[in-house]
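Build the 3D complex.
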Amino acid sequence: MTPFEIIQTHYCRRDLAARAWKQKGGKVVGYFCDNVPEELIQAAGFFPYRLSGDPTGTVEIAEKYPPTGTMAAPREGFVNSMFNRLMTGEYDFLDFLVVPHARETIHRLHQVLAEIKDQNPSFHLPELYFLDNLHTTFYWSGVYNRLRWREFKTTLEQWSGKEITDMALSDAIAVTNENRTLLKKIAALRAADPPRISGTQALRIIGSSMFMLKEEHNRRLSQFLDELDKLSAKDGVRVFVEASPLDHLQLYDIIESCGAIVVGEDHCWGNRYSDVLINTAGDPFEALADRYHNKSPCPRMFPLSRRIDYCVNSAVSAGAQGAIINVYEFDEALMWEIPDAVKALEEKGIPSLHLRNQPYRIADPDLLTSRIREFIKSI
Amino acid sequence: MSDTIAGELKIAGEMNAYQRKWLANVRERVGNGEPFAICNGDEFEEIFNAMDIPVMVLNYWSKIIATEAKASYYKKVLKERGYDPLHLFFSLGLACAMDNNPETAPWGGLPKPSVIVGGSKHDREMKVLELWARECGCPFIPMEFGLNTTPEQPPLPPRWWERMRDHWDELIDPDRLNVRVEEEKSLIRFLEITTGKHFSPAKLDRVAELINEQMDYWGKVRDLIAATIPCPVSLPDQIAMYQAMWHRGTEMGCNFIKAYYEEIKERVEKGIFANPNEKLRLMYIPATTPAYAGFLEETYHASLVCFGYSSIPIDCYARTVHNNDALRTLASRHMVLFSETPDWRLKDAQLHQCDGVIEVIDPAMPSLNKPLFDASGMPLLSLYTDKDTRDIKSRLSRWIETTVLPNHKGVTL
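Done.
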């Protein structure tokens, strides 16, 4: 298999590497979202594994446990899907699960899972850990986040039975920095004129880095990049995607079937995962904390202007000719940003197509294809 | 003692009238250059009050907008701006600011705020408030750890309301509280710099005393209502008096509830009741009066004697100041106020000598109260709306006739 085929295999069979690791006696720490410091997990000797949904799967069990509480937000489809996969045993290889303070529906999953684990042990859920993380990047939030990340480090040490030394953390940082540097090269190849990598290829490459051992991903990705001359130039209208978390290829497949190339995006399964490295000078824990405190913002973060600047700067630097904005049903944080994003993109000469209240599993691909095709033609 | 039908509670009429006058007065003060603040419910109001900065609580403002039947108009305003909110209620204030039309706005609208404060209760909150502040050209100060943002904490213990006043420190994470206190201190400093108003710890101590005094009077009212059959005050009047909550920690807010208590006490002594023919007592869990209240009274002589907020003042807001630190005590309350646990609801229903409880719930969510209520024998009806429809009336009748009345021997209608 070519390096890309190997990467693609891991994107499709997302549990492959984690199960192999487990078979060799290793332990797997699952986590939601991209704000969990995976370097700490790796430094503790565990396999860090990011959970994802499956738009083709069912959510029957998750729906039996609706969110509760005053004005609790309904779960987005991808959150329900991840929850359901946990309940059906698709994630039975996880030894531990870190639920971060991310979007509200993820945050609230911790309590639901804890109650289920307590009341119904037959579901065999992994040991749970809640990792708090605040909404602002102010000084006091940073003080607090550091406190919680230190507690997380201590918990990992208890789970593994060994100390996470500065050297182990520095090593893990070096590996993830290398990974992010390679992923930035992928981002540059997409932003090149003409692009050398398509959006669907990029999503596979970025996503698989969260399902594979980082060292292995680095090796395969380096091999892939060594064979750059084999990559043909891509042709098509350059499109930027602003979106709710896209842990699948459905939307990009449709966009790229309409004569466009997705040259960049703003969501946590795309370039936003990898665009900020960790400073390797000084204390590794402090450097790690700085990176996670100040990394590129997701929609739950304050202020709005930082989010809009991130979206527009990413679109401009990718040389986008148009933007497709895909907001999932119930994704409230992103929904409130979109009018500002549309206006700011327009001011930069980037027209956009706003797809509102989209189901996680695309309900009518033909209809969506025709809307997107029409938009691409209009650019 | 003779049973007399009560008219509208005098103090409730005064409360309603006062609120409009209060807002008109705030507009005048702002016109003269004084500051004005908007904040989310239970975020920081007492400190604004202690600094003599009038504050409008956004959930109260949304309620006023909804009560004035402006919600669909403002929904259109939001749509025109490209927003399609999932929770319209929370965004009504923003829409009103976007519309910026005192002719259309309820009560002549809000004056320009000097600051908007809110935070992280929900994903929507920070966004809506930030947009609102931008619309008004004022700063937005986001606060971490708003109410209910800590669901991962162990649930509150059984009978938590008995520990809330004196043992609140057991119910909160001290590290989170440290951050919250620092945030509130920073906000005080910001306000001192930008408004010229001064923060006095002594004044905050007095505010903390007044809060407890006000809540204690509310507790006495609650106990009188609970113990008196027939009920001495109608549900709309009880709800109207809740507006005094938005003047928490002020002499005026305290005086309103003291007068409320005295009027209810007088009614009880004179035998004046909201529904002298009361045969059934019901609890209604939302903080509104359902459109079918009249139907219940006329058909079944049923009174709605308490509602979802009846015990909040005395069970949740009263706090003993620890270590002479009123700011930390209040900050803790800005983070943990209550939890809608079934044991708390059942306690209230039993305390008020209710024959049944009606709750309005989201159709997508199961009733949290049902298992405990079923086990206790307290009849519970879960409805999806407070509207007065034929179907709802029929469900109410079926529930009363087949579940409530058989439980309530000796009642003949």
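Chain A has two domains: 3-165, 167-378.
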